[in-house]
Amino acid sequence: MKTAVSCYYHLDVEVSPERVGQVGRILAAHLRYWDLETLVEPVRRGAELLLRAIDEHASDKHTSIELWWNGQHLITAVGDDDRDLRPDQDLRGCLEHIAAMSDGWGCCATETGGKVIWFSQRARAGERVPLVPTPPEPSLRAVLQVPRAASVADGSAVPERVGVLEGAR
What pTM did the predictor assign? Predict the structure, then answer.
Protein backbone atom coordinates (compact mmCIF):
# COMPACT_ATOMS: atom_id res chain seq x y z
CA MET A 1 0.00 0.00 0.00
CA LYS A 2 1.24 3.48 -0.82
CA THR A 3 1.69 5.81 2.08
CA ALA A 4 -0.12 9.10 1.91
CA VAL A 5 1.94 12.22 1.46
CA SER A 6 0.19 15.08 3.19
CA CYS A 7 0.03 18.36 1.27
CA TYR A 8 -0.72 21.93 2.33
CA TYR A 9 -1.29 25.15 0.40
CA HIS A 10 -1.99 28.69 1.67
CA LEU A 11 -3.10 31.73 -0.34
CA ASP A 12 -3.82 35.28 0.87
CA VAL A 13 -5.93 37.42 -1.48
CA GLU A 14 -7.90 40.66 -1.58
CA VAL A 15 -11.27 39.53 -2.92
CA SER A 16 -12.71 41.26 -5.97
CA PRO A 17 -15.03 39.98 -8.73
CA GLU A 18 -12.14 39.32 -11.14
CA ARG A 19 -10.07 37.59 -8.44
CA VAL A 20 -12.75 34.97 -7.72
CA GLY A 21 -12.21 33.10 -11.01
CA GLN A 22 -8.44 33.51 -10.76
CA VAL A 23 -8.37 31.94 -7.28
CA GLY A 24 -10.53 29.06 -8.55
CA ARG A 25 -7.99 28.37 -11.32
CA ILE A 26 -5.08 28.51 -8.83
CA LEU A 27 -6.77 25.99 -6.51
CA ALA A 28 -7.58 23.73 -9.48
CA ALA A 29 -3.93 23.77 -10.58
CA HIS A 30 -2.76 22.71 -7.11
CA LEU A 31 -5.30 19.89 -6.94
CA ARG A 32 -4.21 18.60 -10.35
CA TYR A 33 -0.58 18.76 -9.21
CA TRP A 34 -1.53 16.64 -6.19
CA ASP A 35 -3.30 14.12 -8.52
CA LEU A 36 -6.73 15.04 -7.18
CA GLU A 37 -8.45 15.73 -10.50
CA THR A 38 -11.86 14.46 -9.33
CA LEU A 39 -11.93 16.94 -6.43
CA VAL A 40 -11.22 20.00 -8.58
CA GLU A 41 -14.80 20.91 -9.47
CA PRO A 42 -16.44 20.64 -6.01
CA VAL A 43 -13.55 22.46 -4.30
CA ARG A 44 -13.42 25.18 -6.90
CA ARG A 45 -17.21 25.66 -6.78
CA GLY A 46 -17.26 25.82 -2.96
CA ALA A 47 -14.35 28.25 -2.74
CA GLU A 48 -15.86 30.50 -5.42
CA LEU A 49 -19.23 30.54 -3.59
CA LEU A 50 -17.54 31.69 -0.39
CA LEU A 51 -15.38 34.27 -2.15
CA ARG A 52 -18.37 35.76 -3.99
CA ALA A 53 -20.30 36.00 -0.71
CA ILE A 54 -17.34 37.72 0.96
CA ASP A 55 -17.03 40.12 -1.98
CA GLU A 56 -20.74 40.94 -1.81
CA HIS A 57 -21.22 41.26 1.98
CA ALA A 58 -17.88 41.94 3.68
CA SER A 59 -16.32 45.33 4.30
CA ASP A 60 -12.84 43.80 4.85
CA LYS A 61 -11.97 41.94 1.64
CA HIS A 62 -8.72 40.36 2.90
CA THR A 63 -9.17 36.57 2.77
CA SER A 64 -6.99 33.52 3.42
CA ILE A 65 -7.56 30.22 1.66
CA GLU A 66 -5.96 26.95 2.76
CA LEU A 67 -5.99 23.42 1.36
CA TRP A 68 -5.00 20.37 3.43
CA TRP A 69 -4.72 16.88 1.91
CA ASN A 70 -4.05 13.94 4.24
CA GLY A 71 -4.37 11.07 1.77
CA GLN A 72 -8.09 10.49 2.34
CA HIS A 73 -9.67 13.90 2.88
CA LEU A 74 -9.16 17.33 1.37
CA ILE A 75 -10.13 20.22 3.61
CA THR A 76 -10.63 23.66 2.10
CA ALA A 77 -10.79 26.60 4.53
CA VAL A 78 -11.66 30.22 3.72
CA GLY A 79 -11.03 32.77 6.46
CA ASP A 80 -11.79 36.46 6.70
CA ASP A 81 -11.30 39.20 9.31
CA ASP A 82 -14.65 40.97 8.93
CA ARG A 83 -16.42 41.19 12.30
CA ASP A 84 -19.70 42.32 10.72
CA LEU A 85 -20.11 39.41 8.28
CA ARG A 86 -22.44 36.89 9.96
CA PRO A 87 -22.59 33.32 8.66
CA ASP A 88 -26.09 32.74 10.04
CA GLN A 89 -27.51 35.78 8.18
CA ASP A 90 -25.29 36.99 5.33
CA LEU A 91 -23.88 33.60 4.27
CA ARG A 92 -26.88 31.32 4.87
CA GLY A 93 -27.58 30.54 1.17
CA CYS A 94 -23.89 29.97 0.46
CA LEU A 95 -23.53 27.61 3.42
CA GLU A 96 -26.57 25.60 2.32
CA HIS A 97 -24.90 24.96 -1.06
CA ILE A 98 -21.62 24.00 0.61
CA ALA A 99 -23.38 21.61 3.00
CA ALA A 100 -25.13 19.92 0.07
CA MET A 101 -21.99 19.35 -2.00
CA SER A 102 -19.40 18.45 0.64
CA ASP A 103 -18.81 15.51 2.96
CA GLY A 104 -18.49 17.81 5.97
CA TRP A 105 -18.32 21.52 6.76
CA GLY A 106 -18.10 23.93 9.65
CA CYS A 107 -17.49 27.47 10.81
CA CYS A 108 -15.42 28.75 13.70
CA ALA A 109 -14.44 32.16 15.09
CA THR A 110 -10.87 33.49 15.00
CA GLU A 111 -9.01 35.49 17.65
CA THR A 112 -9.32 38.66 15.53
CA GLY A 113 -13.12 38.46 15.44
CA GLY A 114 -13.32 37.02 11.96
CA LYS A 115 -14.31 33.52 10.98
CA VAL A 116 -13.08 30.45 9.12
CA ILE A 117 -15.49 28.43 7.03
CA TRP A 118 -14.22 25.00 5.98
CA PHE A 119 -15.54 22.07 4.00
CA SER A 120 -14.12 18.64 3.25
CA GLN A 121 -14.17 16.24 0.34
CA ARG A 122 -13.37 12.55 0.79
CA ALA A 123 -11.26 10.84 -1.84
CA ARG A 124 -13.09 8.01 -3.57
CA ALA A 125 -11.62 4.54 -4.14
CA GLY A 126 -9.06 4.42 -6.93
CA GLU A 127 -7.66 7.88 -6.26
CA ARG A 128 -4.14 8.73 -5.09
CA VAL A 129 -4.02 6.32 -2.11
CA PRO A 130 -6.21 3.23 -1.65
CA LEU A 131 -8.55 3.61 1.31
CA VAL A 132 -8.44 -0.12 2.18
CA PRO A 133 -5.20 -2.15 2.09
CA THR A 134 -5.21 -5.08 -0.31
CA PRO A 135 -4.08 -8.49 0.97
CA PRO A 136 -0.77 -9.81 -0.41
CA GLU A 137 -0.92 -12.41 -3.15
CA PRO A 138 1.10 -15.59 -2.66
CA SER A 139 3.68 -16.53 -5.27
CA LEU A 140 5.08 -20.03 -5.83
CA ARG A 141 8.54 -20.69 -7.20
CA ALA A 142 8.48 -24.50 -7.05
CA VAL A 143 5.46 -26.76 -7.25
CA LEU A 144 4.86 -29.98 -5.33
CA GLN A 145 3.31 -32.67 -7.41
CA VAL A 146 0.39 -34.63 -6.04
CA PRO A 147 1.43 -38.08 -4.65
CA ARG A 148 0.54 -41.02 -6.91
CA ALA A 149 -0.51 -44.45 -5.75
CA ALA A 150 1.84 -47.35 -6.69
CA SER A 151 0.57 -50.88 -7.08
CA VAL A 152 1.86 -53.50 -4.72
CA ALA A 153 1.78 -57.23 -5.39
CA ASP A 154 -1.05 -57.84 -2.92
CA GLY A 155 -3.27 -55.29 -4.73
CA SER A 156 -3.32 -52.48 -2.13
CA ALA A 157 -2.24 -48.99 -3.14
CA VAL A 158 0.80 -47.41 -1.46
CA PRO A 159 1.47 -43.68 -1.95
CA GLU A 160 4.75 -42.84 -3.65
CA ARG A 161 6.51 -39.47 -3.44
CA VAL A 162 7.08 -38.11 -6.88
CA GLY A 163 8.45 -34.57 -6.35
CA VAL A 164 10.27 -32.82 -3.53
CA LEU A 165 10.07 -29.10 -2.82
CA GLU A 166 13.59 -27.75 -3.13
CA GLY A 167 14.78 -25.61 -0.26
CA ALA A 168 11.89 -26.59 2.06
CA ARG A 169 12.92 -27.62 5.54
Answer: 0.67
